[in-house]
């Protein structure tokens, strides 16, 4: 390769350009590999786990609010001091983010066991939604649980013997 100087031209072999190009490629490649090594473990957390967590938490809250509303609506139409059997069926999503979950009616915190709540659990997450004091009413106990598959049922039976209550 010929290099032109400021005052004239002379023939001299340029041995530095080959080495500098090689070092440039090695440095750029090593920097890009370092970025790749840093980025690959974080991609799963940023693009998969965090959105799944956010979607699951919102879905569990919505499902808990929906079940709570259905139970509160059922208690709103209960006839006072009359024997009655009220059965309502409802459907909730079969899965959240492709994973199963469970819905349970649980007792309240210690000292307030009557303050029932709905516990939605699955995918290593749990959300508790209050039943707005339904368990503290004169109508007795509430309890039970269900998985998300199929049609779900809420039953109110005020028959003291339990003979007329559906199973």
User: Using DSSP, what is the number of strands?
Assistant: 8
Q: How much is the average pLDDT?
A: 80
Main structural class: alpha+beta
**Main sheet: which strands, in order across?**
6-5-4-7
Task: Give a written overview of the molecule.
With 167 residues, the protein is α+β, with helices and mostly antiparallel strands. The protein has one domain (40-157). It is built from 1 helix and 8 strands. The strands form 3 sheets. A 4-stranded antiparallel beta sheet has the order 6-5-4-7, covered by helices on one side. A hairpin with a 2-residue loop joins strand 5 and strand 6 (125-130). It is rod-shaped and about 115 Å long. It starts with a strand and ends in a 10-residue tail after the last strand. The relative contact order is 0.14. The model has no long low-confidence stretch (mean pLDDT 80).
Index terms:
167 residues, rod-shaped, alpha+beta
